[in-house]
Amino acid sequence: MSSTVYVDRGSSIHRLNPVTKLVAMLCIIVIVFALPVWWVSGLVLAVAIIPAAVVSRCGRKLSRISATILLPILVVLFVVQGLTFPGGKTALISWGVFTVTSEGLHFALGIGLRLVCLVLASVLLVLTTHPGDLMSALTARGMSPKFGYIISSTLQLIPAFRDRANAILLAQQARGLSVRGSPLRRIKIMMPLLGPLILGMFTDVEDRSTAMEARGFGSTARRTSLVPVPDSSVQRVSRWAMPMVSLAVIVVPFATGAL
Amino acid sequence: MTGMHLRFEDVHYRYPAGVEAIRGVSLAIEPGERVAIVGQNGAGKTTLVRHLNGIFKPTAGTVHVGDWLTTDHDIAELAARVGYVFQNPDEQLFARSVQADVEFGPRNLGVVPEETTRRAEQALATVGLVEQKNAHPHHLSLSERKRVALAGVLAMHTPIVVLDEPTTGQDAAGIDMVGKVMDTLAADGRTVIVITHDMDFCAEHFPRVVVMTNGQIQADGDARTVFGLAQTLAEAAVEPPQLIRLSQRLGWGYSPLNTAEFVEYCARRRSERVG
Amino acid sequence: MIRLDGVSYAYPDTVRPVLENVSLDIGRGTIAGILGASGAGKTTLAKIIAGFIPHVDGGELSGTVSVEGQGMGDLQLAEAVSRVGLVIQNPFNQISGARYTVREEIAFGLENFGVARPEMQDRVGEVADLLNLGPLLDRSPYELSGGQQQLVAIASMIVLRTPVLVMDEPTSQLDPAGTRMVFDVLSTLRGAGITVVIFEHKLELLHQHADVLYVLADRSIVAAGDPTDILADAHLAEWHIGSTRYTRVARAAQKRGLLAGLRHLPVSLEQAVAVFADDGGAR
Known about the structure:
The complex is a heterotrimer. Chain B has helices at 45-49, 75-78, 98-108, 113-126, 142-154, 172-187, 199-205, 223-226, 230-235, 242-249, 259-274; strands spanning 6-14, 20-29, 34-38, 60-65, 68-69, 82-85, 160-164, 191-195, 208-213, 216-222. Chain B is α/β, with parallel strands linked by helices. In chain B, helix 3 packs across helix 4 (113-126) and helix 4 (113-126) crosses helix 5. Chain B is globular and about 65 Å long. Chain C is α/β, with parallel strands linked by helices. The interface between A and C is large, with 40 and 46 residues.
């Protein structure tokens, strides 16, 4: 059972300070959403995300995970916006009452590419960064350990939840419950499980918080970390530079009236 | 409940991650037998017995439950023949009341409602939880939850019952109760297979003992013989039951499995000496 | 060292107390075993000694609880836990969920208390050796078996070197070899002056390792003293504690008139050997 999607490929991207990667990801997201033109997203994809993905050697897993997240959204987006975009005038294809407009497609492309950037950048961060390392790095920077714990334990609890659900489903089958049939039937079988599962998780959380406190989680001492977080002066500088550059990229076009 | 043979034939099982947990196990169990499987953590005990209800299918070799080959049937079908009590009750209990949880199994097996209720009540009486039948399983103690899980399988009336560590988390009264359930099952002619670390419990209720190490069977035979194999047991990190250790220290050359046998033998020795 | 005087406790929103008038006095560097049937209030007592009650769970606590002369009620929880370590019953829930390798999991408490990295590494290595966890250090704590998780849970408390260690059924998931290893480690810790309070059902091992035993029944401590005396106590059955097979056969033999003149029931293998050896018995 794997509790994270992190894959250790030992690339230079993996070895970056997690905060550097986090800052880069946030900058990318801010830029693509602040500048509402499709080619900005395209450019970011071409010069930042895709090269990073190649260097990280996680390309295949990145595309698989991102595709599962993005495909349904993109399909809906293009169908709905392509057909029903309110400002749509230029008809491309007409089929009965449905008309695909070029404005609609254009709009869908703009939103779609931004979503692609958002998802790819975040998944890449998760694939190349051990969540534990990210939390240590952030805590070392003064983030509240409680906040860090909420994030990292949630990441861990999702697979724990899944495993518990699987175990219960297995036990139900062992008592004669047939899971054959349509996916809808499976979902129907899973539904009654949710209540006890969530209740069980609550009991666990209470118990776990006792165990956490017993290990000094509420201590006010300045925390140390067993595993050192990698860093370099280049990264320290770039963590400041990236937001500055992003800000400039966003503000300058507006100021100069280019947009 | 007619008898049913169980047969493992040169079973191997390799986990998807690559670890070979079962490495060539052959084992035949007759209808109505009581068999304890013992060995260290990680010896492959749970993996082996999970083949009986189809949770695992052998990577090589075959497992027969009666006239069924486990590879031909899914877990739900095998459940009609093999009742399985999991080690962790929290992975097994999910209904809103104890009674409803115990009724779950028989209902799935197509037992009519009145009969289901009757069976559930009977099973709860067997494990001493009649008063808790309307309680939510989450509000019970670990020992009680384990007994609910046991009742849930008893109510299915399967010819074969498999129990993974039924005595852990139980106090003395709970262990005695589980022991009584084992004896009742045996009296009904049902086959009982248990995984346990509690050798005293094992000696008192299970005439046949299988010792596993490293995914293989190291010893298999009647309890008296197996518990006498000092070398094998040491290699498997299994400590013989207290009474057998005592008889060995006394140099008796006889392995008593329970209090009655011990006292009986002790009395006989003494009367022979006196006489 | 650990003193409880007239401690009574009821959980919030309940009338019936779980514990009534409990008193304990456990000296430094001892292993104290506490026996009790399921539902006798063991987990509650463990949380009281460790300061979690009333700090976290609330409820009505009366009487005094002190460790090394310091009242636990007067301490902040963070201070209390640096004096008394608590190993909870379910090892799965003792895994923090915040760390991704066994090594980091064991170090988690040390990180919270701000222990310097080199010392942390030493201490984690040391406790991993003690409990045979070396080969697991780089694995994810969630990939381990129940028994392995239990060892990690124990390691993660021992590593903190609290003067007192309270353990709630710490060997429930372990096989006999693992159980023995844990008890041996506890004996080592006792040698280093650490006081251990252990809630456990395994009577033979308790007899071998504990210096003193307490019986928790009917919401209070009903017996306390030397392990041999406690385990031979005729009331154990009433309290649903059971007894070792050595005691059981001796009692049965006595009933058959085989051990006339026997004054002390045996509770351990050695004692039973002495009682039943042909030259030592009543012949």
